[in-house]
Amino acid sequence: MWSYRKRLERDLDRWREAGWVTASGEAAIRADLETGVRAVGLAPSLAILGAVLMGFAVMSFVAANWQDMARAVRLALLFGLLWASYGLAGFLLARGLNAFAHASILLGTAIFGASIMLISQMYHVDGNPPDAVLVWGLGALLAGVLLKSNPALALAMVLVGIWGMWETGLREEVFWPFLLGWGAVSAAFYWRRWRPGLHLSGLALSGFLITLGYILHGGHGHVQVVAIGLAIVGLAMAGERVRPELTGLWPGTLGYGAVVAFAGLYALQFVESPEIDMLILLAVLTLALLIAAIFWGLKSGNRGALWLGYSGFSIEILGVYSKTIGTLLNTSLFFLIAGLIVCGLAALAYRLHSGRESREVKP
Amino acid sequence: MTEERRNLWLAIGVVGLVQMAALAWMVGDRVHLLRTGREIVAEVTPVDPRDLFRGDYVIFGYPFSRTGEVSVPGGTRRGDTIYVTLEPKEAGQWEIVRAEAAYPDTTSPGHVVLKGRAVDIWPREAGERRTARLRFGIESYFVPEGTGRKLEELVRDKKIAAVIAVGKTGDAAIKALMIDGKRVHEEPLL
Known about the structure:
The complex is a heterodimer of chains A (363) and B (190).
Chain A: H1 2-17, H2 23-64, H3 71-94, H4 98-122, H5 129-146, H6 150-170, H7 177-192, H8 195-219, H9 222-242, H10 250-271, H11 276-300, H12 303-324, H13 331-361
Chain B: H1 3-36, E1 38-43, E2 45-46, E3 53-54, E4 57-61, E5 70-73, E6 81-88, E7 94-100, E8 112-122, E9 129-135, E10 140-142, H2 148-154, E11 160-166, E12 172-179, E13 182-184
Antiparallel strand pairs in B: 1-11, 2-4, 3-4, 4-10, 5-9, 6-7, 6-8, 8-9, 11-12, 12-13
Protein backbone atom coordinates (compact mmCIF):
# COMPACT_ATOMS: atom_id res chain seq x y z
CA MET A 1 0.00 0.00 0.00
CA TRP A 2 2.69 2.49 1.04
CA SER A 3 4.96 1.70 -1.87
CA TYR A 4 2.03 2.12 -4.26
CA ARG A 5 1.22 5.46 -2.71
CA LYS A 6 4.80 6.70 -2.94
CA ARG A 7 5.04 5.62 -6.55
CA LEU A 8 1.72 7.19 -7.47
CA GLU A 9 2.70 10.47 -5.85
CA ARG A 10 5.95 10.52 -7.80
CA ASP A 11 4.10 9.71 -11.01
CA LEU A 12 1.44 12.34 -10.32
CA ASP A 13 4.08 15.09 -10.18
CA ARG A 14 5.48 13.89 -13.47
CA TRP A 15 2.06 13.60 -15.13
CA ARG A 16 1.04 17.09 -13.99
CA GLU A 17 4.24 18.60 -15.38
CA ALA A 18 3.66 16.79 -18.67
CA GLY A 19 0.19 18.29 -18.77
CA TRP A 20 -1.66 14.94 -18.73
CA VAL A 21 -3.43 15.49 -15.42
CA THR A 22 -5.36 18.64 -14.54
CA ALA A 23 -5.00 20.23 -11.10
CA SER A 24 -8.55 19.19 -10.14
CA GLY A 25 -7.93 15.66 -11.41
CA GLU A 26 -4.79 15.43 -9.32
CA ALA A 27 -6.64 16.64 -6.22
CA ALA A 28 -9.37 14.04 -6.81
CA ILE A 29 -6.80 11.24 -7.15
CA ARG A 30 -5.02 12.34 -3.97
CA ALA A 31 -8.32 12.47 -2.05
CA ASP A 32 -9.21 8.99 -3.27
CA LEU A 33 -5.80 7.75 -2.17
CA GLU A 34 -6.33 9.18 1.32
CA THR A 35 -9.72 7.55 1.86
CA GLY A 36 -8.37 4.32 0.40
CA VAL A 37 -5.57 4.21 2.94
CA ARG A 38 -7.89 4.88 5.81
CA ALA A 39 -10.83 2.70 4.85
CA VAL A 40 -9.09 -0.28 3.30
CA GLY A 41 -5.73 -0.37 5.03
CA LEU A 42 -6.06 0.57 8.64
CA ALA A 43 -9.36 -0.84 9.90
CA PRO A 44 -8.87 -4.48 8.87
CA SER A 45 -5.23 -4.45 9.95
CA LEU A 46 -6.17 -3.25 13.41
CA ALA A 47 -9.12 -5.64 13.59
CA ILE A 48 -6.90 -8.61 12.64
CA LEU A 49 -4.26 -7.58 15.18
CA GLY A 50 -7.02 -7.23 17.77
CA ALA A 51 -8.25 -10.74 16.96
CA VAL A 52 -4.75 -12.16 17.38
CA LEU A 53 -4.36 -10.41 20.75
CA MET A 54 -7.74 -11.67 21.90
CA GLY A 55 -6.82 -15.19 20.85
CA PHE A 56 -3.75 -15.00 23.09
CA ALA A 57 -5.85 -13.53 25.90
CA VAL A 58 -8.29 -16.45 25.71
CA MET A 59 -5.51 -19.03 25.71
CA SER A 60 -3.61 -17.54 28.65
CA PHE A 61 -6.78 -17.00 30.67
CA VAL A 62 -7.93 -20.57 30.17
CA ALA A 63 -4.47 -22.01 30.81
CA ALA A 64 -4.02 -19.94 33.98
CA ASN A 65 -7.37 -20.91 35.50
CA TRP A 66 -7.21 -24.55 34.50
CA GLN A 67 -7.00 -26.24 37.90
CA ASP A 68 -10.06 -24.44 39.29
CA MET A 69 -12.38 -25.92 36.66
CA ALA A 70 -13.62 -29.43 36.05
CA ARG A 71 -12.70 -30.91 32.68
CA ALA A 72 -16.31 -30.64 31.48
CA VAL A 73 -16.41 -26.94 32.39
CA ARG A 74 -13.18 -26.27 30.49
CA LEU A 75 -14.53 -28.04 27.42
CA ALA A 76 -17.82 -26.12 27.62
CA LEU A 77 -15.84 -22.89 27.86
CA LEU A 78 -13.78 -23.70 24.76
CA PHE A 79 -16.85 -24.70 22.73
CA GLY A 80 -18.69 -21.57 23.90
CA LEU A 81 -15.82 -19.31 22.82
CA LEU A 82 -15.68 -21.05 19.45
CA TRP A 83 -19.38 -20.51 18.77
CA ALA A 84 -19.28 -16.95 20.13
CA SER A 85 -16.58 -15.87 17.67
CA TYR A 86 -18.30 -17.46 14.66
CA GLY A 87 -21.65 -16.07 15.79
CA LEU A 88 -20.13 -12.60 16.07
CA ALA A 89 -18.66 -13.05 12.59
CA GLY A 90 -22.11 -13.86 11.19
CA PHE A 91 -23.63 -10.87 12.92
CA LEU A 92 -20.94 -8.56 11.49
CA LEU A 93 -21.16 -10.06 7.98
CA ALA A 94 -24.94 -9.59 7.96
CA ARG A 95 -24.35 -5.91 8.73
CA GLY A 96 -21.75 -5.52 6.01
CA LEU A 97 -18.88 -4.95 8.44
CA ASN A 98 -16.73 -7.37 6.50
CA ALA A 99 -13.30 -6.36 7.80
CA PHE A 100 -14.34 -6.95 11.40
CA ALA A 101 -16.19 -10.13 10.46
CA HIS A 102 -13.02 -11.60 8.97
CA ALA A 103 -11.07 -10.71 12.10
CA SER A 104 -13.75 -12.54 14.07
CA ILE A 105 -13.48 -15.61 11.79
CA LEU A 106 -9.71 -15.57 12.31
CA LEU A 107 -10.31 -15.41 16.06
CA GLY A 108 -12.61 -18.45 15.76
CA THR A 109 -9.97 -20.49 13.92
CA ALA A 110 -7.36 -19.39 16.49
CA ILE A 111 -9.66 -20.61 19.28
CA PHE A 112 -10.08 -23.89 17.39
CA GLY A 113 -6.28 -24.32 17.36
CA ALA A 114 -5.96 -23.30 21.00
CA SER A 115 -8.63 -25.85 21.90
CA ILE A 116 -6.68 -28.62 20.19
CA MET A 117 -3.61 -27.69 22.23
CA LEU A 118 -5.51 -27.32 25.49
CA ILE A 119 -7.32 -30.65 25.04
CA SER A 120 -3.97 -32.31 24.29
CA GLN A 121 -2.64 -30.84 27.51
CA MET A 122 -5.73 -31.79 29.51
CA TYR A 123 -5.56 -35.45 28.50
CA HIS A 124 -1.75 -35.64 28.27
CA VAL A 125 -1.90 -36.39 24.55
CA ASP A 126 1.70 -36.57 23.40
CA GLY A 127 1.40 -38.46 20.13
CA ASN A 128 2.45 -37.01 16.80
CA PRO A 129 2.35 -33.17 17.10
CA PRO A 130 2.15 -32.53 13.30
CA ASP A 131 -1.23 -34.32 13.31
CA ALA A 132 -2.58 -31.59 15.57
CA VAL A 133 -1.26 -28.92 13.20
CA LEU A 134 -2.93 -30.68 10.25
CA VAL A 135 -6.30 -30.83 12.02
CA TRP A 136 -6.01 -27.13 12.82
CA GLY A 137 -5.10 -26.36 9.19
CA LEU A 138 -8.10 -28.32 7.90
CA GLY A 139 -10.37 -26.40 10.28
CA ALA A 140 -8.95 -23.11 9.01
CA LEU A 141 -9.41 -24.22 5.37
CA LEU A 142 -13.04 -25.15 6.05
CA ALA A 143 -13.73 -21.77 7.65
CA GLY A 144 -11.87 -19.97 4.85
CA VAL A 145 -13.85 -21.67 2.06
CA LEU A 146 -17.34 -21.71 3.58
CA LEU A 147 -17.14 -18.20 5.03
CA LYS A 148 -15.07 -16.85 2.08
CA SER A 149 -12.41 -15.57 4.44
CA ASN A 150 -8.95 -14.81 3.03
CA PRO A 151 -7.22 -14.40 6.43
CA ALA A 152 -8.43 -17.86 7.49
CA LEU A 153 -7.12 -19.31 4.20
CA ALA A 154 -3.75 -17.62 4.77
CA LEU A 155 -3.61 -19.23 8.21
CA ALA A 156 -4.48 -22.57 6.60
CA MET A 157 -1.51 -22.27 4.20
CA VAL A 158 0.86 -21.35 7.03
CA LEU A 159 -0.34 -24.37 9.02
CA VAL A 160 -0.02 -26.73 6.04
CA GLY A 161 3.55 -25.45 5.63
CA ILE A 162 4.37 -26.08 9.30
CA TRP A 163 2.80 -29.54 9.05
CA GLY A 164 4.91 -30.43 6.01
CA MET A 165 8.15 -29.13 7.51
CA TRP A 166 7.53 -30.91 10.81
CA GLU A 167 6.72 -34.26 9.18
CA THR A 168 9.75 -33.93 6.90
CA GLY A 169 11.93 -33.34 9.94
CA LEU A 170 10.66 -36.56 11.56
CA ARG A 171 11.54 -38.87 8.66
CA GLU A 172 14.28 -39.63 6.15
CA GLU A 173 12.19 -39.27 3.01
CA VAL A 174 10.12 -36.74 1.09
CA PHE A 175 6.75 -36.05 2.72
CA TRP A 176 4.57 -36.12 -0.41
CA PRO A 177 1.16 -35.68 1.34
CA PHE A 178 2.20 -32.03 1.77
CA LEU A 179 1.31 -31.53 -1.90
CA LEU A 180 -2.30 -32.57 -1.23
CA GLY A 181 -2.71 -29.99 1.53
CA TRP A 182 -0.87 -27.37 -0.52
CA GLY A 183 -3.06 -28.06 -3.56
CA ALA A 184 -6.29 -27.78 -1.57
CA VAL A 185 -5.41 -24.41 -0.03
CA SER A 186 -3.94 -23.09 -3.31
CA ALA A 187 -7.14 -24.03 -5.16
CA ALA A 188 -9.08 -22.03 -2.57
CA PHE A 189 -6.77 -19.03 -3.10
CA TYR A 190 -7.27 -19.27 -6.85
CA TRP A 191 -11.03 -19.59 -6.47
CA ARG A 192 -10.99 -16.44 -4.32
CA ARG A 193 -8.71 -14.70 -6.91
CA TRP A 194 -6.55 -13.56 -3.99
CA ARG A 195 -3.05 -12.56 -5.11
CA PRO A 196 -1.29 -12.37 -1.72
CA GLY A 197 -2.58 -15.88 -1.06
CA LEU A 198 -1.17 -17.15 -4.35
CA HIS A 199 2.19 -15.66 -3.35
CA LEU A 200 1.99 -17.64 -0.11
CA SER A 201 1.36 -20.73 -2.25
CA GLY A 202 4.37 -19.92 -4.41
CA LEU A 203 6.58 -19.48 -1.35
CA ALA A 204 5.40 -22.72 0.27
CA LEU A 205 5.87 -24.77 -2.90
CA SER A 206 9.30 -23.24 -3.59
CA GLY A 207 10.39 -24.22 -0.08
CA PHE A 208 9.15 -27.77 -0.63
CA LEU A 209 10.86 -28.12 -4.02
CA ILE A 210 14.18 -26.72 -2.76
CA THR A 211 14.09 -29.18 0.18
CA LEU A 212 13.74 -32.05 -2.32
CA GLY A 213 17.38 -31.52 -3.33
CA TYR A 214 18.53 -32.21 0.21
CA ILE A 215 16.45 -35.42 0.56
CA LEU A 216 16.34 -37.14 -2.86
CA HIS A 217 19.30 -39.30 -3.96
CA GLY A 218 20.74 -39.39 -0.47
CA GLY A 219 20.66 -35.60 -0.19
CA HIS A 220 22.23 -34.95 -3.60
CA GLY A 221 19.16 -34.25 -5.73
CA HIS A 222 19.92 -30.65 -6.64
CA VAL A 223 20.15 -31.32 -10.37
CA GLN A 224 16.49 -32.40 -10.28
CA VAL A 225 15.63 -29.22 -8.36
CA VAL A 226 17.25 -27.10 -11.09
CA ALA A 227 15.35 -29.05 -13.75
CA ILE A 228 12.03 -28.58 -11.92
CA GLY A 229 12.71 -24.86 -11.46
CA LEU A 230 13.54 -24.39 -15.15
CA ALA A 231 10.46 -26.42 -16.12
CA ILE A 232 8.30 -24.07 -14.04
CA VAL A 233 9.93 -21.06 -15.73
CA GLY A 234 9.24 -22.62 -19.14
CA LEU A 235 5.66 -23.39 -18.15
CA ALA A 236 5.12 -19.78 -17.09
CA MET A 237 6.55 -18.46 -20.39
CA ALA A 238 4.41 -20.85 -22.42
CA GLY A 239 1.37 -20.09 -20.26
CA GLU A 240 1.74 -16.38 -20.88
CA ARG A 241 1.38 -17.06 -24.62
CA VAL A 242 -1.32 -19.72 -24.51
CA ARG A 243 -3.51 -18.23 -21.79
CA PRO A 244 -2.62 -14.53 -21.69
CA GLU A 245 -5.94 -13.72 -19.98
CA LEU A 246 -4.60 -15.19 -16.69
CA THR A 247 -2.38 -12.13 -16.28
CA GLY A 248 -1.99 -12.42 -12.53
CA LEU A 249 -0.69 -15.97 -12.59
CA TRP A 250 2.29 -16.16 -14.95
CA PRO A 251 4.77 -13.49 -13.76
CA GLY A 252 4.64 -14.86 -10.20
CA THR A 253 4.99 -18.46 -11.40
CA LEU A 254 8.04 -17.47 -13.43
CA GLY A 255 9.60 -15.74 -10.44
CA TYR A 256 9.14 -18.70 -8.10
CA GLY A 257 10.44 -21.12 -10.76
CA ALA A 258 13.55 -18.96 -11.10
CA VAL A 259 14.02 -18.95 -7.31
CA VAL A 260 13.83 -22.77 -7.23
CA ALA A 261 16.30 -23.13 -10.12
CA PHE A 262 18.71 -20.66 -8.54
CA ALA A 263 18.52 -22.38 -5.14
CA GLY A 264 19.33 -25.71 -6.82
CA LEU A 265 22.28 -24.21 -8.72
CA TYR A 266 23.52 -22.56 -5.55
CA ALA A 267 23.45 -25.90 -3.70
CA LEU A 268 25.28 -27.61 -6.59
CA GLN A 269 28.05 -25.03 -6.40
CA PHE A 270 28.42 -24.33 -2.71
CA VAL A 271 26.75 -27.13 -0.72
CA GLU A 272 28.12 -29.95 -2.84
CA SER A 273 31.86 -29.81 -3.48
CA PRO A 274 32.31 -29.86 -7.26
CA GLU A 275 35.68 -29.95 -9.05
CA ILE A 276 36.94 -26.49 -9.89
CA ASP A 277 36.19 -26.70 -13.63
CA MET A 278 32.66 -27.92 -12.84
CA LEU A 279 32.25 -25.06 -10.38
CA ILE A 280 33.28 -22.52 -13.02
CA LEU A 281 30.88 -24.05 -15.53
CA LEU A 282 28.01 -23.91 -13.04
CA ALA A 283 28.87 -20.36 -12.00
CA VAL A 284 28.87 -19.17 -15.62
CA LEU A 285 25.55 -20.94 -16.21
CA THR A 286 24.04 -19.40 -13.07
CA LEU A 287 25.19 -15.89 -13.98
CA ALA A 288 23.83 -16.31 -17.48
CA LEU A 289 20.45 -17.37 -16.07
CA LEU A 290 20.39 -14.42 -13.68
CA ILE A 291 21.18 -12.02 -16.52
CA ALA A 292 18.37 -13.65 -18.49
CA ALA A 293 16.03 -13.08 -15.53
CA ILE A 294 17.01 -9.40 -15.40
CA PHE A 295 16.55 -9.10 -19.14
CA TRP A 296 13.16 -10.81 -18.99
CA GLY A 297 12.15 -8.60 -16.08
CA LEU A 298 12.96 -5.48 -18.09
CA LYS A 299 11.33 -6.72 -21.27
CA SER A 300 8.04 -7.86 -19.74
CA GLY A 301 7.85 -5.39 -16.87
CA ASN A 302 8.11 -8.23 -14.33
CA ARG A 303 9.53 -6.38 -11.33
CA GLY A 304 9.82 -9.58 -9.32
CA ALA A 305 12.13 -11.20 -11.90
CA LEU A 306 14.19 -8.02 -12.07
CA TRP A 307 14.63 -7.79 -8.32
CA LEU A 308 15.38 -11.49 -8.16
CA GLY A 309 18.00 -11.24 -10.88
CA TYR A 310 19.83 -8.43 -9.10
CA SER A 311 19.78 -10.01 -5.63
CA GLY A 312 20.61 -13.46 -7.02
CA PHE A 313 23.56 -11.89 -8.81
CA SER A 314 25.01 -10.50 -5.55
CA ILE A 315 24.43 -13.79 -3.69
CA GLU A 316 26.11 -15.75 -6.49
CA ILE A 317 29.14 -13.45 -6.60
CA LEU A 318 29.53 -13.66 -2.80
CA GLY A 319 29.31 -17.46 -3.00
CA VAL A 320 31.94 -17.71 -5.74
CA TYR A 321 34.17 -15.32 -3.83
CA SER A 322 34.16 -17.29 -0.57
CA LYS A 323 34.40 -20.64 -2.34
CA THR A 324 37.47 -19.86 -4.42
CA ILE A 325 39.58 -18.58 -1.51
CA GLY A 326 42.37 -21.07 -0.87
CA THR A 327 41.81 -23.28 -3.90
CA LEU A 328 44.63 -24.55 -6.10
CA LEU A 329 43.67 -22.17 -8.86
CA ASN A 330 45.70 -19.00 -9.10
CA THR A 331 43.32 -16.99 -6.96
CA SER A 332 44.32 -13.51 -8.05
CA LEU A 333 44.10 -14.43 -11.72
CA PHE A 334 40.68 -15.96 -11.19
CA PHE A 335 39.43 -12.86 -9.42
CA LEU A 336 40.85 -10.65 -12.14
CA ILE A 337 39.01 -12.57 -14.88
CA ALA A 338 35.86 -12.98 -12.80
CA GLY A 339 35.96 -9.29 -11.89
CA LEU A 340 36.29 -8.26 -15.53
CA ILE A 341 33.42 -10.50 -16.56
CA VAL A 342 31.21 -9.30 -13.70
CA CYS A 343 32.02 -5.64 -14.40
CA GLY A 344 31.19 -6.21 -18.02
CA LEU A 345 27.91 -7.86 -17.12
CA ALA A 346 27.10 -5.13 -14.61
CA ALA A 347 27.72 -2.48 -17.25
CA LEU A 348 25.54 -4.36 -19.68
CA ALA A 349 22.79 -4.73 -17.07
CA TYR A 350 23.04 -1.05 -16.22
CA ARG A 351 22.79 -0.02 -19.85
CA LEU A 352 19.81 -2.26 -20.41
CA HIS A 353 18.08 -0.87 -17.34
CA SER A 354 18.82 2.82 -17.98
CA GLY A 355 17.86 2.36 -21.62
CA ARG A 356 14.46 1.22 -20.51
CA GLU A 357 14.11 4.01 -17.95
CA SER A 358 14.81 6.69 -20.56
CA ARG A 359 12.34 5.06 -22.97
CA GLU A 360 9.74 5.05 -20.19
CA VAL A 361 10.16 8.73 -19.47
CA LYS A 362 10.03 9.82 -23.09
CA PRO A 363 6.45 10.40 -24.20
CA MET B 1 -34.68 -13.73 6.08
CA THR B 2 -33.25 -13.46 2.59
CA GLU B 3 -31.69 -16.48 0.97
CA GLU B 4 -28.22 -14.95 1.09
CA ARG B 5 -28.56 -14.37 4.81
CA ARG B 6 -29.83 -17.91 5.33
CA ASN B 7 -26.83 -19.34 3.47
CA LEU B 8 -24.49 -17.26 5.61
CA TRP B 9 -25.88 -18.64 8.86
CA LEU B 10 -25.91 -22.14 7.39
CA ALA B 11 -22.19 -21.83 6.52
CA ILE B 12 -21.42 -20.55 10.01
CA GLY B 13 -23.35 -23.44 11.52
CA VAL B 14 -21.43 -25.99 9.43
CA VAL B 15 -18.03 -24.49 10.31
CA GLY B 16 -18.82 -24.37 14.01
CA LEU B 17 -20.31 -27.86 14.09
CA VAL B 18 -17.47 -29.52 12.15
CA GLN B 19 -14.79 -27.86 14.28
CA MET B 20 -16.63 -28.72 17.49
CA ALA B 21 -17.11 -32.31 16.29
CA ALA B 22 -13.35 -32.60 15.63
CA LEU B 23 -12.59 -31.42 19.17
CA ALA B 24 -15.27 -33.68 20.67
CA TRP B 25 -13.83 -36.61 18.73
CA MET B 26 -10.38 -35.90 20.20
CA VAL B 27 -11.84 -35.92 23.70
CA GLY B 28 -14.03 -38.99 23.06
CA ASP B 29 -11.11 -40.97 21.65
CA ARG B 30 -9.02 -40.24 24.70
CA VAL B 31 -11.78 -40.86 27.23
CA HIS B 32 -12.57 -44.19 25.56
CA LEU B 33 -8.90 -45.23 25.74
CA LEU B 34 -8.57 -44.16 29.38
CA ARG B 35 -11.83 -45.88 30.34
CA THR B 36 -11.47 -49.18 28.48
CA GLY B 37 -7.70 -49.54 28.11
CA ARG B 38 -5.81 -52.10 30.13
CA GLU B 39 -4.15 -50.42 33.10
CA ILE B 40 -0.45 -50.95 33.68
CA VAL B 41 1.97 -49.29 36.07
CA ALA B 42 5.41 -48.48 34.73
CA GLU B 43 8.28 -47.01 36.67
CA VAL B 44 9.52 -43.71 35.34
CA THR B 45 13.11 -42.62 35.02
CA PRO B 46 13.18 -38.84 34.99
CA VAL B 47 15.26 -37.58 32.08
CA ASP B 48 17.07 -35.07 34.27
CA PRO B 49 16.20 -35.37 37.97
CA ARG B 50 17.23 -31.82 38.83
CA ASP B 51 15.19 -30.32 36.04
CA LEU B 52 12.29 -32.70 36.38
CA PHE B 53 9.42 -30.24 36.24
CA ARG B 54 10.22 -27.85 33.48
CA GLY B 55 7.57 -25.24 33.98
CA ASP B 56 4.33 -27.11 34.17
CA TYR B 57 5.00 -30.39 32.52
CA VAL B 58 7.15 -33.38 33.31
CA ILE B 59 9.24 -35.31 30.81
CA PHE B 60 9.16 -39.04 31.47
CA GLY B 61 11.66 -41.61 30.36
CA TYR B 62 10.95 -45.32 30.48
CA PRO B 63 13.55 -48.07 30.25
CA PHE B 64 11.90 -49.04 26.96
CA SER B 65 11.53 -45.53 25.56
CA ARG B 66 13.43 -42.30 25.03
CA THR B 67 16.44 -43.14 27.19
CA GLY B 68 16.28 -46.82 26.32
CA GLU B 69 17.68 -48.34 23.16
CA VAL B 70 15.54 -50.86 21.31
CA SER B 71 16.63 -53.36 18.68
CA VAL B 72 14.28 -53.02 15.68
CA PRO B 73 13.99 -54.73 12.26
CA GLY B 74 16.75 -53.65 9.86
CA GLY B 75 14.37 -52.06 7.34
CA THR B 76 12.94 -49.60 9.88
CA ARG B 77 13.22 -45.94 8.96
CA ARG B 78 12.87 -42.80 11.04
CA GLY B 79 9.18 -42.02 11.58
CA ASP B 80 8.04 -45.65 11.14
CA THR B 81 5.57 -47.27 13.53
CA ILE B 82 7.01 -50.03 15.73
CA TYR B 83 5.01 -52.37 17.99
CA VAL B 84 6.81 -53.36 21.15
CA THR B 85 5.79 -56.35 23.26
CA LEU B 86 6.51 -55.86 26.96
CA GLU B 87 6.81 -58.56 29.61
CA PRO B 88 6.25 -57.77 33.31
CA LYS B 89 9.20 -58.26 35.63
CA GLU B 90 9.04 -57.10 39.27
CA ALA B 91 6.52 -54.39 40.22
CA GLY B 92 6.53 -51.53 37.75
CA GLN B 93 9.33 -53.02 35.67
CA TRP B 94 8.81 -54.04 32.06
CA GLU B 95 11.17 -55.67 29.64
CA ILE B 96 11.01 -55.70 25.85
CA VAL B 97 10.43 -59.14 24.38
CA ARG B 98 9.91 -58.19 20.73
CA ALA B 99 9.90 -55.11 18.51
CA GLU B 100 8.32 -55.41 15.06
CA ALA B 101 6.65 -53.42 12.31
CA ALA B 102 3.15 -54.98 12.65
CA TYR B 103 0.90 -55.68 15.62
CA PRO B 104 1.84 -59.19 16.83
CA ASP B 105 -0.65 -61.97 16.06
CA THR B 106 -0.17 -63.80 19.33
CA THR B 107 0.70 -62.51 22.74
CA SER B 108 0.57 -64.24 26.08
CA PRO B 109 -1.95 -62.74 28.54
CA GLY B 110 0.68 -61.15 30.73
CA HIS B 111 2.27 -59.27 27.86
CA VAL B 112 1.40 -55.74 26.79
CA VAL B 113 1.81 -54.34 23.27
CA LEU B 114 2.65 -50.64 22.84
CA LYS B 115 2.59 -48.70 19.58
CA GLY B 116 5.62 -46.47 19.18
CA ARG B 117 7.31 -44.31 16.60
CA ALA B 118 11.01 -44.46 15.78
CA VAL B 119 12.52 -41.01 16.39
CA ASP B 120 16.18 -41.92 16.06
CA ILE B 121 17.88 -44.84 14.34
CA TRP B 122 21.43 -46.11 13.99
CA PRO B 123 23.59 -47.26 12.26
CA ARG B 124 22.60 -45.28 9.16
CA GLU B 125 22.97 -48.26 6.81
CA ALA B 126 20.18 -50.81 6.85
CA GLY B 127 21.26 -54.15 8.29
CA GLU B 128 19.84 -57.27 9.95
CA ARG B 129 18.79 -55.30 13.07
CA ARG B 130 19.20 -51.67 13.92
CA THR B 131 18.96 -49.79 17.19
CA ALA B 132 16.26 -47.18 17.69
CA ARG B 133 14.92 -44.75 20.20
CA LEU B 134 11.13 -44.92 20.34
CA ARG B 135 8.35 -42.62 21.51
CA PHE B 136 4.97 -43.89 22.63
CA GLY B 137 3.13 -40.64 23.32
CA ILE B 138 3.36 -41.14 27.09
CA GLU B 139 6.45 -39.02 27.62
CA SER B 140 4.87 -35.73 28.72
CA TYR B 141 2.70 -35.12 31.74
CA PHE B 142 1.09 -31.75 32.38
CA VAL B 143 0.50 -30.54 35.93
CA PRO B 144 -1.56 -27.52 37.06
CA GLU B 145 0.25 -24.22 36.68
CA GLY B 146 2.53 -23.41 39.61
CA THR B 147 2.55 -26.90 41.15
CA GLY B 148 5.56 -28.22 39.25
CA ARG B 149 8.15 -27.14 41.80
CA LYS B 150 6.23 -28.59 44.74
CA LEU B 151 5.96 -31.93 42.99
CA GLU B 152 9.61 -31.79 42.13
CA GLU B 153 10.54 -31.57 45.84
CA LEU B 154 8.12 -34.33 46.65
CA VAL B 155 9.57 -36.81 44.19
CA ARG B 156 13.23 -36.09 44.79
CA ASP B 157 13.93 -39.22 46.86
CA LYS B 158 10.87 -41.23 46.00
CA LYS B 159 9.90 -43.71 43.36
CA ILE B 160 7.61 -42.36 40.64
CA ALA B 161 5.53 -44.46 38.34
CA ALA B 162 3.00 -43.69 35.63
CA VAL B 163 -0.39 -45.36 35.46
CA ILE B 164 -0.89 -46.04 31.75
CA ALA B 165 -4.00 -47.15 29.87
CA VAL B 166 -3.18 -49.32 26.85
CA GLY B 167 -5.76 -49.81 24.09
CA LYS B 168 -6.35 -52.81 21.83
CA THR B 169 -4.27 -51.32 18.97
CA GLY B 170 -1.33 -50.42 21.20
CA ASP B 171 -2.25 -46.77 21.75
CA ALA B 172 -1.30 -45.59 25.21
CA ALA B 173 -2.27 -42.71 27.49
CA ILE B 174 -1.15 -41.59 30.93
CA LYS B 175 -3.97 -41.90 33.43
CA ALA B 176 -2.32 -40.79 36.64
CA LEU B 177 0.98 -40.39 38.44
CA MET B 178 2.06 -42.59 41.35
CA ILE B 179 4.47 -41.43 44.04
CA ASP B 180 5.51 -44.14 46.50
CA GLY B 181 2.58 -46.27 45.46
CA LYS B 182 0.00 -43.49 45.97
CA ARG B 183 -1.92 -42.00 43.06
CA VAL B 184 -1.66 -38.24 42.62
CA HIS B 185 -3.23 -35.81 40.17
CA GLU B 186 -6.01 -38.07 39.09
CA GLU B 187 -9.02 -36.27 37.61
CA PRO B 188 -12.48 -37.40 36.56
CA LEU B 189 -12.48 -38.17 32.85
CA LEU B 190 -15.06 -35.54 31.99
